[in-house]
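Email to the structure team, subject: Alkaline shock response membrane anchor protein AmaP model.

Hi all, the expression group asked for a predicted structure before they design truncation constructs. Nothing fancy, just the tokens so they can compare against earlier work. One-line instruction: predict Alkaline shock response membrane anchor protein AmaP, return tokens.
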Amino acid sequence: MRQSRTAVNRFALGCTGLVLLLAGGWLATGGVHPEDRPPAWWPSWWPEPAAGHRVLLDADRLSRLRGEGWWTPSVTAAAITLSLLFACWFLAQFRSGAARQLPLAAPGGTVRAQALAEALAGRASAVPGVARGRARVLPRSRRRLEVRLRVWLRPDTSPQAVLPALCAVAAEAEAAAAPYSAHTRLRISAGSHRVPHVR
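Reply from the structure team: attached below.
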């Protein structure tokens, strides 16, 4: 599921960049002539240029804007911010923590963080009194993992009844993650009590 979502994110990022690149190149080369009949998608709020001009922003108007004190810092800050946001989004697709391979103590042994989280969630869900569980394994450094385990209890199950078994499951996961030092955060939620409805 995570791999398909990552592929969709990369595809969306590539399509967005391609559309913006083509639209910017088309506008820069004078592909749109607002003084002619505007196309249906042309925004109605865009000011119409003076007669004889074939650009979106004529030289006089651009000179007046450049003379304003806020114009250059605003354009520069907006361009830098957008560039950094798109660059971070692009790099985040290749640095997914869940898909990272974690080396184990055995020579040549590795495990995916997502696989470790799924195994931990399965073990927690198998504890009597637990309705379902969800886990996340987040690599925080080269030698430290943060494990987030959340379980939902069945109705009429007290947290004290399942806490020792869940602590044993967390300790087993921490031992399996060696040589990493893992810190587990456990969150227990009570199951909802369904009230019968009388019709």
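The helical segments are 2-28, 59-67, 71-92, 113-125, 159-176. DSSP finds five helices and five strands in the chain. Ping us if the truncation boundaries need rechecking.
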